[in-house]
Amino acid sequence: MYPDNGQNWGQAYPGHRQAPAQQQWGGGTGWNPPAPLPGLMPNDRPARHSWEIPLLVAAVVLTVVAYVAAIAALFLGVVSTWVLIVLVAPILIAVGRGQLYGSQQVNGIKMTPTQFSDGYRMVAEAAARFGMAEPPDAYVVLGNGRINAFASGHGFRRFVVVYSDLFEIGGEAREPDALAFIIGHEVGHIAAGHASYWRQLGQFAANYIPVVGSALFRSMEYTADNHGFCVRPQGARGAMGVLGAGKYLVSVVGFDELADRATTERGFFPWFVNLLSGHPVLTWRAAALRNRTRHGHLFVKPGQIYRDPLQLQYAGDPAGPVTR
Hints:
The chain is of the alpha+beta class. It has one domain (about 50-315). About 45% of the residues lie in helices and about 5% in strands. The chain has helices at about 10, 50-75, 80-105, 115-130, 175-190, 195-200, 210-230, 235-245, 255-265, 270-275, 280-290, and strands at about 110, 135-140, 150-155, 155-165, 305, 320-324. It has a four-stranded mixed sheet, sandwiched between helices. The chain has a two-stranded antiparallel ribbon with strand order 5-6. Helix 2 crosses helix 3 and helix 5 (about 175-190) packs across helix 8. The longest helix is centred in the first third of the chain and has 27 residues, at about 80-105. It is globular, with a radius of gyration of 21 Å. The chain starts with 8 loop residues before the first helix and ends with a strand. The model is unreliable at about 1-30 and about 310-324 (pLDDT under 50). GO terms for molecular function: metal ion binding; metalloendopeptidase activity. Keywords: Cell membrane, Hydrolase, Membrane, Metal-binding, Metalloprotease, Protease, Transmembrane, Transmembrane helix, Zinc.
């Protein structure tokens, strides 16, 4: 479980050093921060984002309405493109999933104890951490400079795909913690049920409804980030850095500067970009990984800059948050 104020954060938050006494939360600072939420700290069972299930229910309801409307239109003799798409969606999703899995089977390099052994071990460790009966298959595919990874499934099989460039974070995998976080994130998608056929069919309508659909997918990404954080919290900073600046420039990215901008970047269009995005924008995502006292923001940017009590450098008053 997460530690109370005054306990040894360094033990419960591996990879971080203990901050100096004068920079600890609690006694003498005049400000006591909220405790980390259960499920958001490394020793907890990873939590779903608080909005994920309500948004999933809304997406399933919309999908059911779409099917009822499509069947009714068919009985009335009204045949259109959207009616056909809705009616054949179960087949299209099944075929697409099977084709994606087959492509990895014949073109991907499978992680095994003898090839990409570090990645193989990271997948197994993440699966064990999440209580999965067996680790999913994992493949490496040619990245050609692209930074990406994803999880999916076909039938009863689940698999993770990692682009080859992620094995070169910082050059020749000098930041394996970042890779472990990313792999934990993808295995987390599987552990949270995001790769299920029935889940993908149920949320089918959300793909065509920008605000509801994009919010659901952002909440799922936050959920997967919670899983990645529980596997390798010290890899969160490198993971955000490589997503923002690439595999070789990750070391020059200031994580706190990136996370601070979630609060300081104002205006309609930064908000609008996040609203329509299927992933949380990078600044908000970094802020959520730094602030484990609440779930990541979906619709409104953070109102204050949170200062992690484990950091050795602070901008502003170390006794509390920096408000803007």
